Structure formats: structure tokens, C-alpha cells
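Record type: ASSEMBLY
Status: queued
Input:
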Amino acid sequence: MSARHIYLDHSATTPVDPRVVEAMLPYFSDIYGNSHSAHSFGQRAEMAVEDARETMARVLNCKPSEIIFTSGGSESDNLALRGAGWTRKRADGRDHLITSPVEHSAVIRTVAQMAEVMGFSETILPIGSDGMVDPEDFAGAVTPQTSLASLMYANNEVGTINPIPHLAALAHEHGVLFHTDAVQAGGQMPLDVQALGVDMLSLSAHKFYGPKGVGALYVREGIDLLPSQSGGIHEDGRRAGTLNTPGIVGMAKALELAYAEHDARVAHYQTLRDALIDGVLARVPGAHLTGHRTQRLPGHASFILDGVEANMLLVHLDLKGIAGSSGSACKTGNPEPSGLLVAMGYTPEQALTGLRLTVGMQTTEADIDYTIDVIAESVEKVRALA
Ligand SMILES: Cc1ncc(COP(=O)(O)O)c(C=O)c1O
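Status: finished
Output:
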């Protein structure tokens, strides 16, 4: 095993900031009441939850009542799509959904399920070779039946940022509701929902140095949601289940810190990301950047590497203490190519060579130099073995 531990998988998850842990600690065994209980124990928890909602609303530039707490990005996506899609279908009969082939499976599979079993129709837009949605394609796909579009803010595998304000404005010209999955954008990109013009936006705390298993859905006032999880009347009847007070407090703290420190963090990420991209492209023959060169997440580097199976490369990197990821799901040793890279126009063989490295607050320049050296070395080894 290597003595070094370099974590370059911040798109998968981030460590919890110690300041966030500290903010959460009292809510496990000291202020442990159920925020829905009327007694003082419950009231103290409720105050913490409502403070957290206000903190998040300040970052998102919305009303606190427009934030629904959930168990994470997947649930937020499910609630937005099924909740708003179903209500609208019942209200005015519109039943056409638009999304893209590079969305997270929490969106793609929810839309597919709505089409398969709930009587919706779907359009999956084409995608550019840079992973971006073309507003013209989007405008061309809208019909009088279109109720809801879901297009992600930034992509998890190649980091490409979509032109959300433009896409949301187009949707509204045709009376279409616009949801964006901002799970990867959270902490790195502006989240002002008025400037973005979105109707719904999903977040997940563990992508911005908050805890796992907690997220939020912004829902613009006036949009009626059928709860996708029914039960108690929590969250104004929009999401049943006892609230995760420590998680919610932690998420709000993490979001507040991310935006208080936004400029410094982004500058740090960008410097390291650019050094990584430039280094890999210069030192590794047959390496190509995937995704958009400039319209990409500040901490995100992704490549395809001619003739190098990414899952094999990741094993070599792991032995040298470097954690990265590939887009290919490995099933019983027989990896499936990344559907996203195929949708972007790469062949299935190329799509098996996709490597994603995402930097974070603790990543240093020395980590990046070492990583470039190790990738250059390991790529040669993997190619020699092929
Ligand atoms: C773009 C995107 N959406 C949704 C999710 C799901 O979030 P969670 O893990 O909180 O369910 C992820 C997680 O990787 C993601 O990258």
C-alpha cells in the first residue's frame, strides 16, 4: 500500500468539514427532540431546523417556505419530477416530460418510470460532444403538452455546465416548469434561484462538505407537489418523515460556509484543476479532455485515454494512494461503458477509458504533481498489459 492518500473523487462525495461536525453535534444527544413535538425538546429542534431553512434560503435567494428538506439528491429529484409532473397532469392534462441523456439516474430513471407506468410521454434531447444541451434543441422539443423539463446544472461525469438561465427562460415562454439537478453545482456554482430562473432545484449536502443522507429541494411558491413519500404532514404535507435535525443543521452550515468562502475555494479548485488537465494532456500520449474546456465545474477534470481501460487504471492509481473514478459501472468484472460518454458521441470502447478526477479543499499542488507522474507511469503499464 502507498503511504500517500490523495482523494480526487470529490464529485462522488466530500469529507464533512469539522466546523459542520461541530455545528451538528448538539443535535444528536442533547437537543434530540422531534421537531414536530409540541414540548420544549421539540421546540428547540424545530428552531434549529427553521434557522437552517432560513440560512439556506439566504444562499438560494428564496423564501424559507420554498425549501423542502429531503434525504438527498436522489429524493429531491424524485419529488420534483413525480410530485410536480403528477399534479400538473391532473390539473391541466399536460403530460410530456423533457430531459437529457446525461442526467443522473435519479432523473433518467424517474422520467422513464413515469413514461412506462404513469402515462407520461418523454423526450430525451440530443447532447453535444461537450456534454451541453443546445437551447435550440430544447426549444424544438417543447410541445403544447409539455409540462416539465429537467436539465442538470452541472454534469457529474464530465463537469459540463448547462446554460440554465437561458433554458429556464425558454421553458417559461411555453408555460413549462423547469427543474434543475444542482447536486454537482452545489458549493461550486452560484445558486441564486431568481438569477437562474428555475422553478425547482435539487441539492445534496454531501457534495459540499456536509453530511450524507440529507438534501433539499427548492420549489417556487405556487407550485403544487404531490408528495412522493406520503405519511405525516411534515414539510407542509410535501414530504413525510421525521426531520433529520443534525443533518439539516449540518447541511445549512456547510452551504453557508461554501458560499462565504466561495471565491477562495473556487480559485483554489480552478488552479489545481487546470494544472491537472494541462499536466495529463502534456504527459500522457493519447489523453483527451472530455466535457467542455471552459464551461466546466471548477474542481472537475475528466479524460478519455486511448486504449486504457479506466477501471484497470484506477486499480493502479489506488495502489499508489490515489482515489479517482470512472464512468463505467463494473458488473462482475465486465464493465459497462459510460452511457454519458456514448451519448456524447464516443464509441463504447472509448467510453470504457473515461477517467474522472475531482479536486477539493484539501488537495495540494504537490498532490497534483504526484498524480500526474503516477498517471503517466500507470497508463504505460496498463497499455503494456493490454
Ligand atoms: C448530479 C447528481 N444528481 C443526484 C445525485 C444523487 O445524490 P444523493 O447521493 O444525495 O442521492 C448525485 C450523486 O452523485 C449526482 O451527482
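Annotation: Residues 72-74, 77, 104, 106, 152, 156, 181, 183-184, 204, 215 surround pyridoxal-5'-phosphate (CB under 6 Å).
Annotation: The chain has two domains: 6-15+262-385, 18-260.
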